[in-house]
Amino acid sequence: MNGVIHGVKGLLTFLSSPLLGAYSDIWGRKSFLLITVFFTCCPIPLMKISPMWYFALISVSGLFSVTFSVVYSYVADVTDENSRSSAYGLVTATFAASLITSPAIGAHLARLYSENFVIALGTVVAILDLVFIFFVVPESLPERLRTDQKISWDKIDPFAALKNISNDRFICLICLIVLLSYLPEAGQYSCFFVYLRLMLGFSEDEIAYFIAFVGIFSCIAQTALLACLQKYFGSKETIMVGLFFQIVQLAAYGIATSNWVMWFAGGLAALSSVTYPSISAFVSVYAKDNQQGLVQGMVNGVRGLCNGLGPALFGFIFYLFDVN
């Protein structure tokens, strides 16, 4: 069921991300930031109200929950080329920090109060997020970039967008890099904690500590390390460094037979987290100012596809080798 949900959501994200990105280039980022955050968060209250509708809405939300492409386009609007990569790193580091803290906070509050309290609190936080965007966050896309632009179906059709990619060698190569790097990463993270528990005997506490370790180290890598690499080497070289760390950590995970190797590989996984913000910064420099949303949407769409295919692929591999 989990694999099907992620697969449907990833496919819908892949199809809709260029569409929403193209629209945000014309009508501005703020309205689409509201839409994407709303559809990302709207399944939360249904966790207790109706589990069936919750799973259905999680799947369908892939059409609109492409927050990263809108956020990256927003960052490209308000930063220059020199500071853009660091800003992208800060965005992804903030996301990583939320992944570290939210499960622990949720579990603690559930023990103190109830699961219903946690769901209600999550709903309130989501509403406050929407209110903050509506009243506080300014529009980032200048009016001069939004006037006198026509929307054509060829521009926003996801299949036409894919056709256009084949005519742009740079974007095609970037999307291929994202596909080949994020497909194993998405699959790895979906099955990894099951692997730790079943194959290496990690306890729940050890898994929680491992998540915290990787998350904290990722925050450091995506801020301090990323800024240093960008300053002294540049975006392309930083991408190569991130991919190198990813190759080594995947190999280490595959051959690991002791816990210390897994912790070492976890550190390498955190270092490899500099890859995607560097790719986004690299693409944003290449794209025109009035096409940031479309290009970021294409890249994020491939990432969304990986989020769907990766868990399904790794789940099938687990099934083939009787890892249950």
TrEMBL record:
Membrane topology: Multi-pass membrane protein
Gene Ontology CC: one annotated term: membrane
Pfam families: MFS_1
Keyword Transmembrane: yes
Keyword Membrane: yes
Residue ranges of every copy of the Major facilitator superfamily (MFS) profile domain listed in the record: 1-141
Spans through the membrane: 31-47, 53-75, 87-105, 117-137, 170-195, 207-227, 239-256, 262-283, 304-321
Domain of life: Eukaryota
Name recorded for this polypeptide: Major facilitator superfamily (MFS) profile domain-containing protein
Organism: Rotaria socialis
